[in-house]
Every structure is written in structure tokens, then in C-alpha cells.
Amino acid sequence: MAAKTNNNTNDSSALRELKDTIKSQAAEIDRLKNELTKNGIVAVKKKAVVPSGGHAHGGAADNEDILDYKEKSSFAIAYERVPWLAVFLFSLSFTALIMNGFEHTLSKQIELAYFVPLMAGHGGNTGGQAVGTVLSALSAGIITRQDAWKVIGKEATSGLIMGVILGAMVGPISHYVMGISKHVATVVSVTFPLLSTIASFLGSSLPFVCVILGLDPAVIAAPAMTSFVDVTGLLCYFLIANQVFKAFGLEL
């Protein structure tokens, strides 16, 4: 009888050990499954965050370019960027031609010259915000080339709104606080909305243009935007000034 009891005890103990072993193996299998699933999700996310460049699907930069950046030397980076910077530097020479063309207007209304750096800086800042936003959205795969017109329209509209708000602030401040003449302050207020719209339009459209042409928007879009905004913004500033001065009955 005692032997039978011992056998039953041994059988129960063995059964418990077997069950514990099965449970531990099942837990280990579940852990491995979860780990594999997480790794798979991370891999998919990484692919989505860095899509292939504009050469194929409209991402912001090629995977190889991004991965190779850490290994590139300073000389290699400079060698890639200098040609584009030289092109844009040449385009900026048009600003000197514009200033020369409106030299007579400047000589009559010297206060206009005070706001030339302000216009250039504001245009660059506004366009830079648009470029950064669009490049980030492209690289994350949130937008593609098919969303170009929607994005450009949204950015241009926001640029117009920002320009109206800032123009309504800067004009009165320049007149009542800085003592700038009313007609020049009016020119500044009227120019801001147009300049902001142009800057936002160019800042949002140039990354898509680079993608379509198979170029690297991270290298080209920002300096191209700055160059074009400086030239077009300055031209608009002086053209608006001529019309405003005529409305005020001033001789040029």
C-alpha cells in the first residue's frame, strides 16, 4: 500500500514538472514571437521613414545617400554642393542689377533702402519654413509627388495670411515708432503679403521639382528658394514702391 502511494506521488510530481516545462516553453515561444513581431514593425517603419529618392518614388533623398553621409568626408560634401552654390550665387547677381535699375527711385526715397535687408530676410525665413516642412513630410512618406499641388496651394495660402498679418504690424510700427514716411510704410505693408506668398510658393514647390527631376532637394531646394525669393522679392518691392508713390502724388 505504501509502495502504491509512493508511485502515485511520483507520477503527480512528474506530471507537474511536465506541465511546468510545457508552460515555460510556451512562454518562451510567445516571447520570441513578440520579439520577431516588434523587429518586423521597426524594419517596416524604418523603410517608411526613409523612402527611395526622387529617382523613383518621390522621397526626399536616396537611401544610399543618407546612409553614406556619415562616412563622407568634408571635401566630398563640399565638392557636391559647390557647383549648385556657384549657380545660385550667379543668380543673386541679378539683385545688383535690380538695385541699379531702380537707383533713381532710391535716390529720391532713400528710406526704401532701409527695408531691403528686412525684405530679403523675411523672404528667406518664410521660404525656409516651407522647404523644411515639405522636405520632412516627403522623407517621412507622409506626402508624395501626387500631393504636390495640394501642398503648394496650402503653403501659398498660409504665406499670404502670414504676410497680411505681419504687413499690418510692420507698416504702422515703422511709421509711428521709427518715424518712416507714410508712403514708404505703405510700400512695406503692401509688399509683405506678396513676398510671403511668393516665398511660400517657391519653398513648397522646389522640393517637388527636384524630386521630379531626380535631383537631391536637401542640397538644392533651400539655396534655390533663397536666390529666387531675393530676386523676385526685391523686384516686387520696387515695382510696388513706384505704384504707391504715384498714388501719393510723389514725383520719381
Task: Walk me through the structure.
83% of the residues lie in helices and 0% in strands. It has 252 residues and is mainly alpha-helical. Helix 6 packs antiparallel against helix 9 and helix 8 packs antiparallel against helix 9. The longest helix has 48 residues. The chain starts with a helix and ends in a 5-residue tail after the last helix.
Q: How are the secondary structure elements laid out?
A:
Elements lengths: L1 H48 L13 H6 L5 H28 L1 H6 L2 H4 L1 H24 L8 H29 L5 H32 L3 H31 L5
The main pleated sheet reads as: none
Number of helical regions: 9
End-to-end gap: 125 Å
The overall average pLDDT, rounded, is 81
Catalogue the unreliable spans: 40-62
Oligomer: single chain
Structural class: mainly alpha
Q: Overall 3D geometry?
A: elongated
How big a fraction of the residues is strand? under 5%
Work out the helicity level: over 70%
- Strand tally, please? 0
Radius of gyration: 32 Å
Order of helices and strands: HHHHHHHHH
Fill in the keyword field for this structure:
elongated, mainly alpha, 0% strand, single chain, 252 residues
Summarize the structure.
The chain is an all-alpha fold and 252 residues long. 83% of the residues lie in helices and 0% in strands.
